[in-house]
């Protein structure tokens, strides 16, 4: 459980940030415009960066690239799962008209239902998590431009 403490803790913090941002947007009735979801990436990026730093600090010299990759990826996946569950609850129970307002043109033309919207929300979160993890781990990988690293070349 200790290995998963950082991904769970920071995943929940990211999810709380995403939910709070969504609810603030809903107060001003601008949550129906997908453009505002771009800031979700900033929230994910900041949270995953903090999670990766906390994980690296907890491991110290024993920090391994593969374990850091998994910690970062699991953090983003946890946040995505929690936010997707909230989004499903919000769009079906708290505000049943939300989906109709969000995709008013698709609703009549393409027959888009809640399932596909939740699938898109989840895939966007998982993709963002993967891309951010790949980008961040480039900063944490060991350089082969050292004397020790030169021993591992062909």
From TrEMBL:
Protein name per Swiss-Prot or TrEMBL: DUF4199 domain-containing protein
Taxonomic superkingdom: Bacteria
Q: Report keywords, A-Z.
A: Membrane, Transmembrane, Transmembrane helix
What residue intervals traverse the membrane? 12-32, 38-56, 68-90, 110-137
What InterPro entries does its record include? DUF4199
One Pfam family from the record: DUF4199
Q: Which organism is it from?
A: Salegentibacter salarius
């Amino acid at each position: 459980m200790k290995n998963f403490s950082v991904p769970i803790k920071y995943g929940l913090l990211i999810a709380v940030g995403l939910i709070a941002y969504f609810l603030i947007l809903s107060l001003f009735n601008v949550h129906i415009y997908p453009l505002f979801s771009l800031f979700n990436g900033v929230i994910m990026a900041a949270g995953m960066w903090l999670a990766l730093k906390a994980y690296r600090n907890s491991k110290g010299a024993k920090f391994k690239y593969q374990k850091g990759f998994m910690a970062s990826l699991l953090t983003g996946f946890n946040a995505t799962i929690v936010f997707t569950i909230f989004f499903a609850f919000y769009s079906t129970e708290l505000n049943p008209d939300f989906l109709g307002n969000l995709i008013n043109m698709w609703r009549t033309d393409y027959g888009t239902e809640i399932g596909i919207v939740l699938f898109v929300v989840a895939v966007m979160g998982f993709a963002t998590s993967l891309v951010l993890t790949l980008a961040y781990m480039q900063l944490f990988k060991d350089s082969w431009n050292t004397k020790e690293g030169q021993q591992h070349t062909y």
